[in-house]
Amino acid sequence: MASLKYQADANFQTGTLANAYTAGDTSLVLTAGHGARFPASGNYWVRVDNEILLVTSRTTDTLTVQGAQASTAAANHAANATVSWVLAAPSLDQLILDVQAHERPCVIPPSTGWSWINQNNATITVEPSGALLFTVPQINATTTTLGIRSVPATPYTLILRAQIQGWEADYYNHGVCLYESATQKAMWIGKRNYGYARLGKWTLPTNSGTQTDYQLYGYEPVFFKFTDSGSTITVAMSNNGYGWHQLLSESRTTFFTTAPDKFGVLMNKNNSLFVNDFLLVSSIEVS
């Protein structure tokens, strides 16, 4: 089925039938001038008496239709019957499909094969959806915990969907990362408070290095992408997994000594005694 028709100025308009309609006909002829109240193209639904019909197109005052929709029965309709644009059950079903089509589908992350650096009683819980919930408990220390696994062979692209929840003092130090085991270098991207994303380049365990903040202008990044071509590393973020905002593209030896060999999550507690911090990874896509 084609995408649902959205047109704010015509929403829920009505018209009347110019002629009687016979059950099963593929055309509804409206009173002269009433056709302009409805979109010229489909797909949308109208109701005449107790029948729901799918409209696939309009030419002037004639609607091309498929009758007996949404479990209603085909019926005859008299001239002057009211034709109403309605939000039928199929409208909602199609709306869900349209919304899903504009967000990247999830690839359930693997629940095994993870290792820890500075675990500090951190845990991984597999949610009913298959998403992984990384939890770092209350701790009185400036410490960085990593949950990591091996990167694929280059060239590769990693797309992670991650949602971050942390105490305000810690929030901007959580994200997803690339990690070089031999040098303890971590390149990470996460969301910080006050409408910014943060890209960090740290050497652990002292967290020495740099971080750059990017204003988000109202959109919430939940997809994060790392690409390693074998010579160049690119980092990007997105709110839907399709439209990407590139944050960095550089030679991988600009920061890493050789190359990252792990990827995963990075969570820095920053002396917080107040609450547990969480990072939910609901998708890991490898290509």
Write up this protein.
This protein has two helices and 20 strands. The chain has two domains: 8-101, Elongation Factor Tu (Ef-tu), domain 3, CATH 2.40.30.180; 115-286, Jelly Rolls (Sandwich). With 287 residues, the chain is mainly β. The chain has helices at 89-101, 168-171; strands at residues 14-16, 27-29, 41-48, 51-59, 62-69, 82-86, 115-117, 123-126, 132-136, 144-150, 156-165, 174-180, 185-192, 196-203, 208-215, 223-228, 232-238, 245-251, 262-268, 277-286. The strands form three sheets. A seven-stranded antiparallel sheet has the order 7-10-19-12-13-14-15, with no helix packed on it. The longest helix is centred in the first third of the chain and has 13 residues, at 89-101.
